[in-house]
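Minutes, project check-in
Item: structure for the 164-residue chain
Input as provided by the requester:
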Amino acid sequence: MTRLAPWIRLFFRFDGRISLRLFWTGIGLIALFGIAMGTLVLPPLIGSRFAPTVALLLCGPPLFAVTTKRFHDVNRSWWWNLLFGLPLGFTWVSHFSGLFPGEGINAVSLYWGLVSLITGGWALKKLGFERGVEGFNDHGPDPLNPNDMGMPLTIRRERGLDDD
């Protein structure tokens, strides 16, 4: 169980911070899992029409956990996930649900697709290429330097790191 603990923490816990390297590792593993589930595992079980949606739902919570921790690293709240997550969800629903008129791409899915492209590009730049805040921030210690003494005195005392 101890070998699985870091992965469980990465994919199913929403607290703390992660580095760029761990972010890209998590994103890559989630993408591989989603592709495997959506193309190999789920189609024979539930049919090819619903397989991509179920695969996306299976990948959603781990993706949310990874991006939340990365937002924490740049000292932003988990609420920032909604900025790019909701437009992506609306795009998915408007395109695949059949609720809106027209076959294939319709005006609603095109609009939300454009919004998703803009917000997703910003999120990719912010989460995937910018270094997080150096030192301790509101969400914990720097993942690249977890023993940083830049943390507030009260937290240092709680952890027994104060040299007084």
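Outcome recorded: The CA atoms of residues 84 and 123 lie 7 Å apart.
No further action items on this chain.
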